[in-house]
Structures are given as structure tokens and as C-alpha cells.
Design goal:
The structure holds 2 protein chains of 2 kinds. By secondary structure, chain A is of the alpha/beta class. Chain A folds into 2 domains: 264 residues, 3-Layer(aba) Sandwich (Rossmann fold); 125 residues, Roll (CBS-domain). Chain A has 18 helices and 16 strands. In chain A, the strands form 4 sheets. In chain A, strands 6-7-8-3-9-10 form a 6-stranded mixed beta sheet, sandwiched between helices. A 4-stranded antiparallel beta sheet of chain A has the order 2-1-4-5, with helices on both faces. The two termini of chain A are 38 Å apart. Chain B is built from 11 helices and no strands. Classes of the chains: A alpha/beta, B mainly alpha. The interface between A and B is medium-sized, with 28 and 17 residues. Chain B: One of its GO terms (molecular function) is carnitine transmembrane transporter activity. Chain B: Belongs to the binding-protein-dependent transport system permease family. CysTW subfamily.
């Protein structure tokens, strides 16, 4: 029961005699052989995976890989030929129509690539649709719909028609319509693929944000590997109707299961996947307030550096002390606070490397990785480059050592 | 060649005379009675409304659904119909058109819906529609007389058969044209088949269905005129007596009346389709 969605050996064969296709699959025939022998297409071949509550599970594949068929098998928009889909432990494939309808209503929200909005209904009426067909009374469904519309940032647009909205806003309506039903599971079929790149990124960020708040179980379909790596807690890669690998972004990047996956991931822009904390180093020397300027100068000499980061006893970052300033305050017996510099770049541990590249090229000093005021590490230009080339491992080990 | 003779004529006659009429005669009589009552009711209703009031209503509708042009045309056309003394005939024609159209919609739209849902049904329905539309319309008149006698009822029946195909076809087309993702969205949220039909498919197909109904009405009007040959009262019978008496003037007077009705009805239903 701890898995929200469980998919076992799910198979879909399109054609007049699917049993024959199943038989041939069992004999180990390939998709191409079955097409040649019987003229039937294997849409999805023995897919198995499970999704935990609150997890974002991404199914990634190129067009024709069967990913869109797979997501439609999950809520039986397409009836599977063989295998099982269990939602909260209940088998969808054996349900009667009434129970299936109830399961769709209560547990499965869906967002579509082409939005699938009802053009003759206002935004509010679109978002209300799922509740309306359940017979929820007008007042309650309006309240729930308005909240969902607010959640996706479309407050004020309730009375507009879909065609009056831009693509990005239309997909927010699609998302709100799925949220209004308050289902635990969201099925997202290439939800952002029809949007232009900037809007797509914005929507991805917002989905991540919403997800932190709502903690839904999300099954997300995409053909975009970058999107998969960004959104997915785990990713399944599909080819020719089969799932070829399931794993976290790091697992797939570092240990591709076969040539297909590795040819895929070799072009991945690591700068989007790796985050600041993956490449940061422990600041080699830090000088707490107790050390005093003399000690700081000594540490700088030892490390062959011309400046040093200063933290207090709670590891809170206070500023940067240059060697010139250290000598100056030592001579004039002044307090360290008066000369500390604060014009170095700061960043959060989960900032993608991509965003750090331009900062690093402009900055005089290393980038500091700071969380709640605490100095976690520093990133130099060199560590960004080595991160891009070699991945994260060696640096990560250094930090944790 | 002449050795082989296909006795379709004899078979049809013996089928109709020896089986259909003796066994189904009562049924057709009852249908005839009900329809007759209905046609008479609508005719009486239309004629009993004061001309002035009816013209005012239609003009207002024209203004709302189409625009000033049609409103002005409605007034001029009505003045014409009254001034050539053909108002009652125009109302008789309209009564046949209205009843036949209602029948076409009540029967045609559901068949169109079924056709859109099942390829098998559509494969059966389509050749029947083709047959109904291509068979010369005069041919309907003969069984209509046999089954329903003379007058308004056989006119309604043959008009109904002639005018139904577009209602079926366009309903089928309209529902099949609803984009797949919208149907999927409706289903994914747990709609029943009826909810999908009434909340999504029919509203989205409405404009296409209305275009079909507009065609149905226009066909009904043309058939209601032809049906004057089997004794249907109305503008058609005016034209018919123009023909039989070689009275060009009478023929033109009645013909213009039909044109007036056709334009008003066509523009009104088109406007209604666009308003929805």
C-alpha cells in the first residue's frame, strides 16, 4: 500500500487480434517482428514501475516511444491489453465502469499537451468541470475552483474565455482544472511541450513550487530530457514501447543502462543538472573573530591567498578580509568589522551551475554558497569547469569528508 | 436482352398492395391522424395570429439574429404576401415546413449522434442517406399517397424524408470534429457518456448542427412546394395551378412568395446558428 501508483507488466497492442500479439510477445518476438507478422503495433510493452506518494515520476521518451499511450493506460483513456495498474492498491484494469469513473473523479487529475480546454466555457466553468460532473453544488464548486485559479496565479481571469488567454495562461487553466478536484495524483501529458521555452521554464519552476506546497503524486510525460532531469525525482526512459531505464537524474547520467540512454544523455547540459552544492569546496581557511588580524594574515600566507572569509562562532558568514586590510587594522589596532568587504557573490546551495557561470566570470572573489547565513562552501571558476566536465562526484566527496 | 426481365415494378407493387397496406394500414392511419391533427393545429395557429403581430415578431427576430437589412426585407416581403392575397397560403406552406423540420430534427439528430459514436452504424446509415437524397423527390410522393392519402400529411412525410439527411450528416460531422484532446479531457475527469455528450460534444458541435438544420429547413421548403402535386395546400399549389392553366402571372406571384419565405427563413436560421 505504500506505493501510490503501481504498474505491472502493462502492455498495449493496437490491432484486431491483440491476444495473438501478446502470445508473440511471450515468445520473445520484438515490436518490429510482431508488426511484420501480424500488422499490429505494440504501443507499450510490459512496462513496470511504481510511484511513491509525493513523488514526481517522469516518463521520458521521443515521439513514438509509447509514453503518451502509457499515461493513457494509467487512467484507462486507453484500455490496456494486458497487465495491471493499481492506484492506492486498487486494480484499475479490472474495475467496472462506475468504479472507474469514481476513481478518475476522486484520484486522477490530468493535464494535456494541447490543454484540452472547453472553448465555450469560461475559465471558471472550465476549472469547475470536474466538480460539476460529480454533482457538487454550485457554491462549493465555485469556491474550490476559485482557489485553484488563485493557486496557479490567474485570479481575475475567471470570466474570460480560453481563447482570450495566451498559451501559458491556458495551460495554467488546465493545471487549475486538475487541481480543483483535489486528487492525490496528477497525470501530466507533455503538459509544457506546447509552450515556448521561456514560459515552459516558468511553468516548470512553478510546478516545483506548487509541488512543495501541495505534495501531489505527479506522473509527468515529456520528450525533453532537460525537463525530465529538472522535474523528476525519478525518471523512466522509454524506447519503442519499453522502459529501458528507471533511476534518479544522477543515476541515469552517471550509469546509463545501455547505448541508447548514453547517446541520449551525452549531450545533456550538465550545467542545468548540477547545483552549487555539488561542486562547492570547503572554504580552505576561515578565520573566526577570535583569531584576530595577525592570525588571519598567517592563514592567508599558509594558503597562499590574498583574502579570507570571516565567520563567527556559529559559522555565520561575516564578510571578506583582504590581506592589505588585515595588515592595516593590525597596525592601527582597529576592529575587523570596519574593513570587512561584502561585495562578493552569494548563492543558494540549489542554484543550477548554469546560473553561476556568468557570475563567476564577472566576480573578483569566489562565489560563496550560503544557507541561512551559514557559509557552506565556495565555488571558484575552476570548480565550475571541472564540475561541467567530470560531474559532481569528486567534489561532493571532498565536501562531505 | 429482353429475355431477362427484372420484375422490380411488380414486386414493389405486390409488396405494397398485398402486404404493407393490409398489415400496416392501421398503423399508417394512426400516424396520419396524429400528423394531420398536428399540421392543422400549426396551420390554424399561424393563420389565427394577426398578420400585424406575426410580422412584428419575425421582424424583431430578424433584427436580433441578422440585422437591419433582413428586418426591412421581412416587412417588405410581408407587405407583398398580404397585398397579393397569398398570406394564408404562405402560412400553410410554413406549417408543413415547421412540422417536417421538427420531425427531421427529432429523428435526424439522434441518428446523427449514433452515427458519430459508431462507425458500423454510420456505414449503414450513409448509403440510406445517399439514397434518400439522390432519389428524385417526385418518387417519394407515390408511396406517400398510398400510405397517407392526399393533403398535408403525405406532404409532411415526403418533406421529412427529403430534408432529414443534412441533419443526420452535419450532426455526425459536428460531433466527430470535436478535437480529441477535449474529449479526452472530459473523459479523464470521469464524465459519463451522457455528460460527455451533453456537456462537451453537443455544445461544441452546435454550430455545425445548426448549419445542418438550416439546410434541412431549406430542403423542406423546396419539398413542401413540390408536394403540392399530391394536394398539399400552400404556395406550391398556387404555382401548380399557374402551370396547369398556363397562367404566367399566377405562377410568378406564387413563386415570388416562396422566394420571400426562403430568404427570411434561411437568414433567420443562419443568424441563430452564429448567435449560439
Amino acid at each position: 500500500m505504500d506505493n501510490k501508483i503501481e504498474v505491472e507488466q502493462l502492455t498495449k497492442i493496437f490491432g484486431s487480434k491483440p491476444e495473438e500479439g501478446i502470445q508473440q510477445l511471450k515468445e520473445g518476438k520484438s515490436k518490429d517482428e510482431i508488426l511484420e507478422n501480424t500488422g499490429m503495433t505494440v504501443g507499450v510493452k510490459e512496462a513496470s514501475f511504481s510511484v511513491k506518494p509525493g513523488e514526481t515520476f517522469v516518463i521520458m521518451g521521443l515521439s513514438g516511444s509509447g509514453k503518451s499511450t502509457l499515461i493513457r493506460l494509467i487512467n484507462r483513456l486507453i484500455d490496456p491489453t494486458a497487465g495491471h495498474v493499481k492506484i492506492d492498491g486498487e486494480d484499475l484494469t479490472t474495475m467496472n465502469t462506475q468504479t472507474l469513473l469514481e476513481t478518475r473523479r476522486e484520484k486522477l487529475g490530468m493535464v494535456f499537451q494541447k490543454f484540452g480546454l472547453f472553448p465555450f466555457r469560461t475559465i471558471l466553468k472550465n476549472v469547475e468541470y470536474g466538480l460539476e460532473i460529480q454533482g457538487v453544488d454550485k457554491e462549493k464548486r465555485e469556491k474550490q475552483a476559485l482557489k485553484a485559479i488563485e493557486d496557479v496565479g490567474l485570479k481575475g481571469y475567471e470570466q474570460q474565455l480560453p481563447k482570450q488567454l495566451s498559451g501559458g495562461m491556458q495551460q495554467r487553466v488546465g493545471l487549475a482544472r486538475a487541481l480543483a478536484n483535489d486528487t492525490d495524483i496528477l497525470l501530466m501529458d507533455e503538459a509544457f511541450s506546447a509552450l515556448d521555452p521561456l514560459i515552459r521554464q516558468e511553468m516548470q519552476d512553478e510546478l516545483i513550487e506548487l509541488q512543495e506546497k501541495l505534495n501531489k503524486t505527479v506522473l509527468f510525460i515529456t520528450h525533453d530530457l532537460d525537463e525530465a532531469l529538472k522535474l523528476g525525482d525519478r525518471i523512466a526512459i522509454m524506447k519503442d514501447g519499453e522502459i529501458v531505464q528507471i533511476g534518479t537524474a544522477e543515476e541515469i547520467l552517471d550509469n546509463p543502462a545501455n547505448d541508447y540512454v548514453s547517446s541520449f544523455v551525452k549531450d545533456v547540459d550538465r550545467s542545468k543538472v548540477l547545483e552549487a552544492e555539488h561542486v562547492m569546496k570547503k572554504p580552505e581557511v576561515t578565520s573566526s573573530f577570535r583569531d584576530g588580524p595577525k592570525m588571519a594574515v598567517k592563514k592567508m600566507e599558509e594558503a597562499n591567498m590574498s583574502s579570507i572569509f570571516v565567520t563567527d562562532k556559529n559559522k555565520q558568514l561575516k564578510g571578506l578580509l583582504t590581506i592589505d586590510d588585515a595588515i592595516y587594522i593590525h597596525k592601527n589596532n582597529e576592529s575587523m568589522e570596519t574593513v570587512l568587504k561584502n561585495d562578493f557573490p552569494k548563492t543558494a546551495p540549489n542554484t543550477p551551475l548554469r546560473d553561476l557561470i556568468s557570475i563567476a566570470s564577472d566576480a573578483k572573489y569566489p562565489i560563496t554558497v550560503v544557507k541561512d547565513g551559514e557559509l557552506l562552501g565556495i565555488i571558484s571558476r575552476a570548480s565550475i569547469l571541472s564540475g561541467l566536465v567530470f560531474g559532481q562526484q569528486e567534489h561532493a566527496e571532498e565536501v562531505h569528508a | 436482352m429482353s429475355d431477362f426481365y427484372f420484375p422490380l415494378e411488380e414486386w414493389t407493387n405486390s409488396f405494397v398492395n398485398d402486404w404493407l397496406l393490409p398489415t400496416m394500414g392501421d398503423f399508417f392511419n394512426q400516424v396520419s391522424d396524429i400528423l394531420g391533427w398536428f399540421v392543422d393545429g400549426v396551420t390554424d395557429g399561424l393563420i389565427s395570429i394577426p398578420v400585424f403581430l406575426l410580422v412584428a415578431i419575425v421582424t424583431a427576430l430578424a433584427l436580433w439574429l441578422s440585422g437591419r437589412g433582413l428586418a426591412i426585407f421581412t416587412i417588405i416581403g410581408s407587405v407583398y404576401l398580404v397585398s397579393v392575397d397569398l398570406w394564408p397560403e404562405a402560412m400553410q406552406t410554413m406549417a408543413i415546413v415547421i412540422v417536417a423540420t421538427l420531425l427531421s430534427i427529432i429523428i435526424g439528430v439522434p441518428i446523427g449522434i449514433l452515427s458519430s459514436k459508431s462507425d458500423t452504424i454510420y456505414r449503414i446509415v450513409r448509403p440510406i442517406l445517399d439514397f434518400m437524397q439522390t432519389l428524385p423527390s417526385f418518387v417519394y410522393l407515390i408511396p406517400a399517397i398510398l400510405l397517407f392519402g392526399l393533403g398535408g400529411v403525405p406532404a409532411v412525410m415526403s418533406t421529412f424524408i427529403f430534408a432529414t439527411p443534412p441533419a443526420v450528416r452535419m450532426t455526425n460531422l459536428g460531433i466527430r470534429q470535436v478535437p480529441e484532446d477535449i474529449v479526452e479531457a472530459s473523459r479523464a475527469f470521469g464524465s459519463t457518456t451522457w455528460q460527455l455528450l451533453f456537456k462537451v460534444e453537443l455544445p461544441m458541435a452546435l454550430q455545425t448542427i445548426m448549419a445542418g438544420i438550416n439546410q434541412t429547413i431549406m430542403l423542406a421548403l423546396s419539398m413542401a412546394v413540390i408536394a403540392s402535386m399530391i394536394g398539399a395546400p400552400g404556395l406550391g399549389s398556387v404555382v401548380l395551378s399557374g402551370i396547369s392553366n398556363v397562367n404566367v402571372g399566377l405562377g410568378l406571384t406564387g413563386g415570388l412568395g416562396i422566394v420571400v419565405l426562403a430568404i427570411i427563413v434561411d437568414r433567420l436560421t443562419q443568424g441563430l446558428g452564429e448567435k449560439l
